[in-house]
Amino acid sequence: MKTILITGCSSGYGLETAHYFHDRGWKVIATMRRPDPDLLPASDRIRLVALDVTDADSIARAVGAAGPVDVLVNNAGIGVVGAFEATPMHVVREVFDTNTFGTMAMIQGVLPQMRGRRAGTIVNVTSSVTLASMPLAAAYTASKTAIEGFSGSLAHELGAFDIRIKLVEPGYCPTTRFSENGAERMGGLIPEAYADFARPIFEAFARPGATTTPKDVAEAVWRAVHDTTGQFHFPAGADAVALAGPR
Q1: Strands (DSSP E) along 10-126, which ranges?
Q2: Domain definitions of the chain by residue range
Q3: Strand partners, 48
Q4: Is the pTM of this model over 0.85?
Q5: Contact status, residue 80 vs residue 95, Cβ threshold 8 Å
Q6: DSSP sequence for 122-173
Q7: What are the tens digits of pLDDT across the range 11-22?
Q8: Cα–Cα distance measured from residue 223 to residue 228, given in angstroms and rounded to the nearest whole number
Q9: Can you state the percent helix, strand and coil of the chain, rounding each to 5?
Q10: Residue 140 annotated in active site
């Protein structure tokens, strides 16, 4: 039985991915800042582990508690939408601490065991903002694009130890808690000078066409984990697939 460790399982993509792999016979280490046993079924193949990806001690404890891990899914992330001019640098750093440095730290945490076994898969969940430039998302885009470049380089050095790196790139998912979780962080980030520019953008997001669902992302993670073709990018959701185009 294989084991998958997923970060950010309290809602959205992470929670759906935990359900998806458990339903298909995997042992799931579902991590979140404040574990809630009501989110996942009672099962001897599910363990809830407390994890804050911005805290080195928390990472060490979680990786130690998880034991051998076949797959790491770096899904934990936070967002910020607003004019970059109005975005305080402490907010930019907060976004990078989770989305970029948190992902890197988790990978460093599991690499020794994967390298020792010469086996393992790491899936980094980024975003469709890496596929096409989008307004009012400069800091968030930077944090996710950094992981794409990082993953491409890391794939070369880890390939020598038969460890695979994959990218899953979700599109826009209106059902996640992206805005709710970032409400305090994003307050005041659309100053009056940007109001006319921002208005049609937010109106468009209120009536999206093709979008992404958490199941789309879970399925893309499943495909990435089981891929044998060497594919690196896995856009998730109809909108992300359209943005990615033929590769």
Answers
A1: 27-32, 46-50, 71-74, 120-125
A2: 3-241
A3: 30
A4: yes
A5: yes
A6: EEEE--GGGTS--TT-HHHHHHHHHHHHHHHHHHHHHHTTTEEEEEEEE---
A7: 999 999 999 999
A8: 9
A9: 50, 15, 35
A10: yes
The string of pLDDT tens digits covering residues 85-120 is 999 999 999 999 999 999 999 999 999 999 999 999
Q: Which CATH number fits domain 3-241: 3.40.50.720, 3.90.550.10, 3.30.470.20, 3.10.560.10?
A: 3.40.50.720
Q: Which helix (H) or strand (E) holds 62?
A: helix 56-66
d(CA 73, CA 9): 10
Q: Which two tokens stand for residue 42?
A: 């009672």
Cα angle, residue 146 at apex, residues 2 and 77 outer, rounded to 5°: 55
Using CB atoms within 10 Å of the CB of residue 118, give its burial: 0 to 12 exposed, 13 to 18 middle, 19+ buried. Answer: exposed
* Side-chain half-sphere exposure of 241, counting CA atoms within 13 A: 10
> Which of 13, 20, 140, 194 does the annotation list as catalytic?
140
Half-sphere exposure of 34 (CA within 13 A, CB side): 0
